[in-house]
């Protein structure tokens, strides 16, 4: 049975790797509303799904439940069923769930992932519904007359109040899904627990031990070059597998590391691990640039800069550093000087989350950066906003004029990928290509050319003729 856990066993806030992604929605009516096949139709955006939940909340003060259901063996099923049939599996899953849970709203969130949302009077009632869904997938699913077993991961979050932030609910569900992937079980988080907020003082004490005891690990999210249709590089993302709290994602411990004075130790550990992982990738025949995020606090630390430059002088690693605009603006003079030291040491520099902060062209033109990453908040609304395409296109043109390549973060749909290709974007990164992967899974992803499959397997998803995008 699905069990509710609080922050004592898991983290609930994450980076926005999943929350707010642009999705193509389907509405599946429950059997009580007219049968599982009463309607599978298009919907608007993510917020409509949650807003419907909040409208009910005002009247009845019900618990909102948001769940992410992932087909874990999707790749295997695709090999047996074929790509076209496998791509519609989410609808089969949605239809089965819709017949089990009354008044449920279901959204397709990807080729192997769906989002469910419903309300209940108590979290225990919600857990019962989730358990009913889980048990239903212990039975085979009839696909074109043949029985298939779907291995499912379930990450669920429940919140009791209309005031609860819908983004927090989505982040908690994503955190629960991360744990479910690791444990192979249903994970359901209760956002009402009094101990939900992390005890930062405790985490500060525990962080040095965590680094020493091997509780930190890395995942890699690839960046795909649009025209060459190949993985150009990958971003290293640090995770903390806490022995009692479960998986803790960077949004919950990076600021703690900065406050505790441990950010330098953590980043140096990350760099050493990335260098070691790169050696393993090279042994497999994959010689690619690996990026590490560098805190703005460290850009102003001469001791850290010197230690990193010495480390790089003794290795043949191909590294990139991602830094935010905000990090530079804190102390632009020392930041630009230290970034130049890194560039002179062979590091490729990328400006991360461009547009999210106070963008300064005066500083941008001075930075020795070779890549600019457009913040995902613009990319996610690329096909649903009138202004965001103009911002993205102008940013791409600006970066090219400054002789930088452009990476679009948060690419979640083929339509966004196609539009970015038309605009002349150089690289893309996001759940459409791949979620962050552990090293072994990343090596397999590279060997299988997984980025081509995940982008619908059509070269046209990546490439548009140059003459076409120049006219756009």
TrEMBL record:
Record-annotated GGDEF domain positions: 62-193
Superkingdom to which the source organism belongs: Bacteria
Q: Which organism is it from?
A: Sphingomonas leidyi
Q: What is this protein called?
A: EAL domain-containing protein (Putative c-di-GMP-specific phosphodiesterase class I)/GGDEF domain-containing protein
Chain ranges of the EAL domain: 200-450
Which InterPro entries does the entry link to? Cyclic-di-GMP_PDE-like (IPR050706), EAL_dom (IPR001633), EAL_sf (IPR035919), GGDEF_dom (IPR000160), Nucleotide_cyclase (IPR029787), Rev_trsase/Diguanyl_cyclase (IPR043128)
Q: Which GO terms describe its molecular function?
A: cyclic-guanylate-specific phosphodiesterase activity
Cross-referenced PROSITE patterns: EAL, GGDEF
Q: Looking at the Swiss-Prot or TrEMBL record, what is one Pfam family this protein matches?
A: GGDEF
């Amino acid at each position: 049975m699905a069990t509710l856990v609080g922050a004592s066993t898991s983290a609930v806030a994450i980076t926005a790797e999943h929350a707010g992604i642009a999705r193509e929605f389907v509405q599946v009516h429950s059997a009580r509303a007219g049968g599982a096949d009463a309607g599978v139709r298009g919907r608007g955006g993510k917020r409509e799904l949650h807003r419907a939940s909040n409208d009910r909340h005002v009247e009845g003060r019900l618990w909102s439940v948001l769940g992410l259901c992932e087909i874990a063996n999707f790749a295997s099923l695709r090999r047996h069923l074929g790509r076209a049939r496998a791509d519609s599996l989410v609808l089969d899953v949605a239809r089965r769930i819709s017949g089990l849970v009354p008044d449920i709203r279901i959204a397709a969130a990807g080729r192997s992932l769906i989002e469910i949302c419903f309300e209940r009077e108590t979290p225990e009632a919600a857990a019962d519904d989730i358990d009913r869904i889980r048990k239903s997938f212990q039975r085979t699913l009839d696909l074109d007359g043949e029985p298939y077993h779907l291995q499912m991961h379930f990450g669920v979050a429940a919140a009791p109040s209309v005031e609860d932030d819908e983004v927090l609910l989505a982040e908690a569900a994503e955190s629960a899904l991360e744990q479910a992937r690791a444990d192979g079980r249903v994970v359901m988080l209760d956002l009402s627990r009094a101990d939900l907020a992390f005890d930062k003082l405790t985490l500060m004490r525990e962080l040095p031990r965590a680094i020493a005891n091997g509780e930190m690990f890395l995942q890699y999210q690839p960046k795909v070059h649009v025209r060459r249709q190949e993985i150009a590089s990958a971003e290293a993302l640090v995770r903390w597998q806490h022995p009692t709290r479960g998986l803790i994602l960077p949004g919950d411990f990076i600021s703690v590391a900065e406050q505790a004075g441990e950010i330098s130790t953590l980043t140096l550990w990350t760099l050493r691990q990335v260098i070691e992982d790169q050696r393993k990738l090279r042994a497999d025949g994959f010689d690619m640039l690996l990026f590490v995020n560098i805190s703005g606090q460290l850009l102003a630390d001469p001791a850290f800069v010197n230690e990193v430059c010495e480390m790089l002088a003794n290795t043949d690693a191909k590294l990139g550093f991602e830094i935010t605009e905000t990090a530079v603006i804190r102390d632009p003079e020392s930041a630009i000087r230290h970034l130049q030291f890194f560039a002179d040491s062979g590091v490729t520099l990328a400006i991360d989350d461009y547009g999210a902060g106070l963008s300064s062209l005066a500083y941008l033109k001075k930075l020795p950066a070779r890549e600019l990453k457009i913040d995902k908040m613009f990319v996610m609304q690329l096909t649903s906003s009138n202004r965001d395409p103009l911002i993205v296109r102008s940013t791409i043109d600006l970066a090219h004029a400054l002789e930088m390549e452009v990476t679009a973060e948060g690419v979640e749909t083929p339509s966004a990928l196609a539009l970015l290709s038309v605009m002349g974007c150089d690289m893309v990164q996001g759940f459409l290509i791949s979620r962050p992967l552990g090293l072994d899974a990343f090596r397999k992803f590279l060997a299988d050319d997984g980025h081509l499959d995940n982008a619908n397997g059509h070269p046209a998803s990546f490439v548009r003729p140059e003459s076409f995008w120049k006219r756009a």
